[in-house]
Design brief:
About 50% of the residues lie in helices and about 15% in strands. By secondary structure, the chain is an alpha/beta fold.
């Protein structure tokens, strides 16, 4: 059955693939981005099943206007896909406080703004699905990604909790944790390099930046295949609350699960001894 699918960050990368695949499958698509003219051009121009509207996810007013435009055009929203995001890289001390805040404004408060605008519509319908694209970096911390990982860990904690808030209204949530996909995350405009320079880190910073630049275009994941996988999830009666996307992501998730279990077991003797003496009386 055709659905109304609202996609953020639809002007490039994975967002474009999601919008294209959703249209090809016969869905109605609300494709949003900061530059709506470019979004429409990327998706092939005006179409009956396509609404293109401007949306800067850091703007609550933009989010509310885009959600209303979707309802005005199609009468409902069935699926929200929070895809828009960016990447601030660097060792923690070299990332300025302003950069850290900008990372969170886009990657955490951005999807929160859009979800806050869309949720009243989904609750009124007593049906809907919220999908948020996080990252393997939302599951596993990595060198040189403290800002990005922090924003993605926060995004996952929010989504895991939101799941229980909205379940009574027949609204599903799915966290998507992609591994390395050949999107535009590592291109200029999506990736931001550290503003500060500290001598201790300098011998490591330059090779890290060059390594990340050289990785662009060589990632193993195919974003078009990921887009089709998301449409499969959208069509399920009981969609997964967490979708680990890519063989590298699955490997990372398995390793993290083993590490957590090992750390829990290592904590048992001391951790189990911290209750009041009468707590188990």
């Amino acid at each position: 059955m055709s659905k109304v699918i609202f996609v953020t960050g639809a002007g490039r990368g994975l967002g474009t693939d999601i919008a294209r695949e959703a249209l090809a499958a016969g869905n109605r698509v609300v494709a949003t981005g900061r530059r709506p003219d470019e979004v429409e051009k990327t998706l092939g121009g005006p179409q009956d099943n396509l609404l293109v509207t401007g949306l800067d996810v850091t703007s609550i007013e933009d989010a509310e206007a885009a959600a209303q435009a979707a309802v005005d055009r199609f009468g409902r929203i069935d699926v929200l896909i929070n895809n828009a995001g960016n990447l601030f890289t660097g060792y923690f001390e070299e990332i300025s406080p302003a950069q850290m805040r900008r990372q969170f404004e886009t990657n955490l408060f951005g999807p929160m703004n859009v979800t806050r605008a869309v949720l009243p519509i989904l609750r009124k319908q007593r049906a809907g699905h919220i999908i948020t694209i996080t990252s393997t970096a939302g599951l596993v911390g990595m060198e040189f990604t403290s800002a990005y990982a922090a924003s993605k860990f926060a995004e996952e904690g929010w989504m895991e909790s939101l799941r229980y808030d909205v379940e009574p209204y027949n609204i599903h949530t799915t966290v998507v944790e992609p591994g390395y996909f050949r999107t535009e995350l590592l291109v200029d405009g999506s990736t931001n390099w550290p503003e500060l320079s500290i001598d201790d880190y300098a011998p490591r910073t330059a090779p890290r930046i060059e390594g990340m630049k050289s990785m662009n275009g060589k990632q193993p994941g195919d974003p078009a295949k990921l887009a089709r996988a998301l449409l499969t999830i959208v069509g399920q009666d009981k969609p997964l609350p967490r979708f680990v996307a890519g063989s590298d992501a699955i490997e990372a998730a398995e390793a993290k699960a083993k590490e957590l279990l090992a750390q829990a077991e290592a904590s048992r003797e001391l951790g189990d001894s911290l209750a009041y003496d009468d707590a188990h009386a």
